[in-house]
Amino acid sequence: MTTRSEDWDEMIVLLGPQPRDFSDLAGLARELQLEGPVALITAAWQENESDDGALTDALGLSTVNLELHRRSEDVVRGEPEFIEAWTARQKHLRHLQEFYRLRLEAIDDAAMAINVRHVDDRLIAEQNAMTISQLRHLDEEHLRRCSDIRFEFDHKWNPGELPTVKKHREELAAMLNDCASIVISGGHVVALVNRLRLFDVLRHRGQRPILAWSAGAMALTDQIVLFHDSPPFGKNLAQVLDFGLGLCPGIVAMPDVSRRVHLDQKEGIGRFARRMAPAHCLALDPGARITFREGRVHELSHSGRLGESGDVNWEWTP
Amino acid sequence: MTDLIEALHEGTLDPDRVGALIDGHDFPFVRDGIGTFLWRGAADEVRLRHWIYGLPSSQPMELLEGTNLWYTSVPLPPESRVEYKFEVQRKGRARWIRDPLNPHLARDPFGANSVAHGQGYTIPSWIHPDPECAPGTYDSLIINSDAFGHRAVSLYLPARFRDTRRYPLLIVHDGDDYLNYSSLGHILDNLMGRREIPDMIVAFTTSPDRLKEYANDEHHARFLTEDLVPVLEDRLPLRRQPQSRCLMGASFGGVASLSTAWRYPGFYGRLLLQSGSFAFTDIGEENRRGPVFDPVVKFMNQFRADPTAISERVFVSCGMYESLIYENRSLIPLLEATGMDVRFREARDGHNWENWRDRLREGLSWLFPGAFLMMYE
Predict the structure, then answer these.
(1) ipTM of predicted complex
(2) Residue B324, CB half-sphere, CA atoms under 13 Å: how many?
(3) Is residue A188, in this structure, part of any structural domain at all?
(4) Rounded (5°) CA angle B20-B26-B30
(5) How many whole angstroms separate alpha carbon B296 and alpha carbon B281?
(6) Which of B155, B213, B224, B351 has the most other CB atoms within 10 Å of its CB?
């Protein structure tokens, strides 16, 4: 194992979507003088988790795929009672998400109905502030409920003590011990977060730098927000999903935001930024980098902050 | 350049400017909800033939004096999509031709029509092959059916297909036509690739006598439910639950979907009904659409008299410019009253495969929501 400059210790770099050849990530790895082995976490690719040849080639380093998806399949086979309870918990969480979304839509419907009324502008402004307050309250309540459910579940089942999970956690700790850095891919954010939590793999991170893109970046923040302005049907309401792992607090990571969000619709952008405040809503388009040091945003490159005015400040500095 | 259009409508266009008119505009030319159509050539009479229910289907075109330029205008509201041809009469012979000035064509089992786009209509991007979305694979299967003997069925397996996973099943009526004229193959690739719908297995069925078999024929319902589905569930990793089974069809295929679900209530949890030929009568059973609709009317009258929740979630779409819009609109409150989750989408379009194509993203993703909101790649 070769180590890097101490400058990079404990650093986390969040990236936007990667091109097919992972050239952006590879360029960053060269800049950081990253040397292997690199622990790959590609669980967000789900069943394609092991298709990491192109990623390894791009990095030009030795890699070790931690195979969290495959390991979770092993837990399915090895811990049927636990998985039955886990599945029921996930169903419960899905229902909660659905009902939370229904409530979001009701708030949005009311806001729309109020905003078309011909009344004093100050009254409308007051009502819009109330809308933000309601959304924030609903978001907080939803996060709290999701967290409570997970806490109760973990308290009851103590997954780390289940033989299959324990075995994998021990293997992962040993594997990570031999690695110099960690790369976390984009993909399915829920699949990723669930497996990171199940195997508690980042507990053994030490001072290793982490490079994470898209869903990987979202997973490391303290709250995961789902967003898309062009859904195939229904309202384009952003929704909080759950707490993230909290290694990169204080931001909402927004991968591919220029493609997923109508950034020219300032009113919606401003409302979203006010709803998420004091968290900074940061763009993670292709080529973007957000560097965290000591748990704080240190530097932005090709990124921007969605402001309460509705503008995106591409020059924003932390 | 648009002053030439005004001059044309006012009958004051200088014949020498016809070339400039044609070269300077795309035709049909659309402005302020009016479409102007041109045809140039020798003829005794030229008519615009279109498929807009609500307007005369054959409209005579005027000849610009001193030229061989024929023209007419029809309302073409924003977002409209209208298929048409020109009927050119010369020396006692009539020919139906496509518009040589218009590159937009829509193919169907009878050939191809020209297509006029109202302002704001765009051909959806998700109908075209996307290199980012891996194509599914196709297979075929012969079903030995008690109802119909041997029947061939085409199968679509998603690009990420794995034996170890379980998939929903979508059964498509007039499957070959959906593939050929509604780009359903590319649409499935793209929607699954972008996770707008979950990976699913699709069975494309066809019928040698669709007007009979799709008109509430008990043999057809039995073929799908007692022959086809069990074989597929036996051979493929399918989720054996109502919410993972969908019937889909257009026109008479919509009737076949609804009536099959009605004959097997609770078996199919998802229905996608496009411009269903849901003809009914409020009194008696005599209908204005001809004897082929008799069994449809009988079924629809029976269903409408006692609508029940035969499925869980039903997506219905219909074109505003087709005669069936009345039947489809009036079906919605009945479906909703049963407690089924119903979504209805109208479009400024006619009874054609591209109308059905354009509604597939919304319909399929509403019936089977994908994980796209969770995907950040």
Answers:
(1) 0.95
(2) 28
(3) yes
(4) 115
(5) 10
(6) B224
- Let me know whether A140 and A278 are in one domain: no
User: Residue B227 carries which DSSP code?
Assistant: I
In terms of domains, do B64 and B135 share one?
no
Integer Cα distance of A134 and A141 in angstroms: 10
Q: Are residues B81 and B219 in the same domain?
A: no
For A188, B6, B48, B89, the CA distances from B59, given in Å and listed in that order, are 54, 20, 5, 13
Note whether B303 and B258 are within 8 A (CB): yes
| CA B299 – CA B263 distance, rounded (Å) | 11
For residue B365, the chain A residue with the least C-alpha distance is: A232
Query: What confidence tens digit (pLDDT) does each residue in B126-145 have?
Result: 999 999 899 999 999 999 99
Q: Contacts of residue B376 in chain A, CB cutoff 8 Å?
A: 17, 186-187, 189, 214-215, 218, 255-256
pLDDT tens readout for residues A143-159: 999 999 999 999 999 99
Determine which of A233, A241, A254 to mutate to test the interface with B (most B C-beta atoms within 10 Å). A233
Work out the mean pLDDT of chain A and round it to a whole number.
95
CB contacts, 8 Å: B365 with chain A: 231-233
Among A157, A184, A216, which residue terminates a domain?
A157
Same domain, B219 and B326: yes
A62 shares a domain with A85: no
What is the rounded CA–CA span in Å between residue B186 and residue B202? 13
Q: Do A47 and B165 touch (CB under 8 A)?
A: yes
Q: Residue B324 is part of a domain; what is its CATH number? A: 3.40.50.1820
Tell me: the pLDDT tens digits for B272-308?
A: 999 999 999 999 888 889 999 999 999 999 999 999 9
The pLDDT of residue B262: 98
Pair A139, A179 in one domain:
no
Question: Within this chain, do residues B101 and B176 fall inside the same structural domain, yes or no?
Answer: no
What confidence tier does A7 reach under pLDDT thresholds 50, 70, 90?
low
Closest approach of A135 to chain B, Cα-based (Å) = 19
Give per-residue pLDDT as tens, B209-261.
Answer: 999 999 999 999 999 999 999 999 999 999 999 999 999 999 999 999 999 99
What is the domain count for chain A? 2
- A212 pLDDT above the threshold of 80: yes
Give me the residue from B196, B372, B377 closest to A186, CB to CB: B377
Q: Which helix (H) or strand (E) holds A69?
A: helix A68-78
Same domain, B69 and B35: yes
For residue A232, the chain B residue with the least C-alpha distance is: B362
- Identify whether residues A89 and A125 lie together within a single domain: yes
Residues of B in contact with A189 (CB under 8 A): 374-376
Q: Would you list which residues of chain A are within 8 Å, Cβ to Cβ, of chain B?
A: 17, 47-48, 186-191, 214-215, 218, 226-228, 231-234, 239, 241, 255-256
Torsion of CA A166, A172, A173, A178, to 10 degrees: 160
Tell me the pLDDT tens digit for each residue of A99-119.
999 999 999 999 999 999 999
Are B264 and B238 a contacting pair, CB within 8 Å? no
A vs B, Cβ pairs < 8 A, gives: 51
Chain B partners within 8 Å of A47 (Cβ)? 160, 162, 165
Joined together, the tokens standing for residue B195 give 């996770």
Together in a domain, B149 and B103: no
- Which chain A positions have a beta carbon within 8 Å of B361's beta carbon? 232
